[in-house]
Amino acid sequence: MPPRRKAGKGRRAAPLGGGRVSIDVLPDEVLHHVLSFLPAQEAVRTCVLALRWRHLWRYATGLRISCNAENEAVSAKKLRNFVDHLFLLRGGSPLDTCQFTLLHINDDNDDMCKIHLWIRHVLLCRVRVLSLDIRFNMDCWRTRFYMDDLPLVSQHLKRLELSALHLNQSFVDFSSCPALEVIQIKECDILDLDRISSRSLKSLSITGYCGFNEDHRIHVYAPNLVSLWLEVFYGRVPFLDRMPSLVEAVVRIDGMDGDFCHHADSGDCEDKDCPGCYGVDGDTGCVLLQSLSEAQSLVLISDTKMFIFRRDLKCCPIFSNLKALSLNEYWCVPDDFSALTCILEHSPVLEKLTLQLFSKGPKSNVQMKGSPDPTERSNVISEHLKTVEIKCEVVDAKVLNVLKFLNKLGIYSYRFQF
């Protein structure tokens, strides 16, 4: 507990002359929160401001511990001494947030062991939000900081942010984190994982150039998940277990290797030696779409060479709650539009369809909005569909082909925006 003063906790100082008000009029609890926004080194330096500030930093509700190229005064060794003394003097004071941003550190086993101990210490301080971004010097042979083999154990952790780490199966065992609701994984190696599992998880984001395994699929088990953002740029698309509470999801597949075949669009080239179609034992049934079928909003983007969505469409589920759907040109190839037709047929309450065609990003030079004619509406599309939005860089032959197909469904009367 903070040391008590005779004037009582949260004492207010007299306003300065001229009507100005000093920060010292704020209660201790507010100053503890304010200090949490400073880098830890700067927060500690406030101890010299006045007698009252001598111990305030010890009870800051957040810690921001950093070591990067812009902070040349802090070497890895000096940081280690500073953080060791910081934790010793803070003791077990509770933390709301803790952020480790350790860039360009040396590949030193003692330093790595220290960092692992620091992480375990803040967990004991009942931290609720933990952010880890730890990177080696560019000349180190390791590309990622390896997390230790111990599982996370915390009754209080609610949000976990992981960047540029090598994750192992023990570390992502979240069974001992019953309050964990949000996980963000960015630019991490997850090659060694078999499973990401959490019953309490509500939001999961795996983005950036994360490395998935080429020889097996990671299983994601999060039955209470509400929001999913999944990007696959390398390796196999993960298998999603049932997500009955899912509301929104973004799935982007631009993978190299993994779910790709030179001979078949749907992963069924019948060549048993094909590593793309038959490289995973027991790989049958829906990988993604079945678990996404309860969502109200979906964004499904894929490189046209990847087959996983087309394979899933062979056992396409009913998207009984889906109201907003965004797709890219993957769903309009080949010219028979079979993939687009299939997912529209299985979306009975769809209200808005967005097609982002042949564009690199969400912003496009041309935007068109159309709507179905109630008298000529095709049975393929939902009777609730009100808006069809097409975004593209230029209206070329490929885009015109898509417009002709939509016209056959009774969707026209476009309004152009440039």
TrEMBL record:
Sequence ranges assigned to domain F-box in this UniProt record: 20-56
Domain of life of the organism encoding this protein: Eukaryota
The protein, known as: F-box domain-containing protein
Biological source species: Panicum virgatum
Lineage: Eukaryota, Viridiplantae, Streptophyta, Embryophyta, Tracheophyta
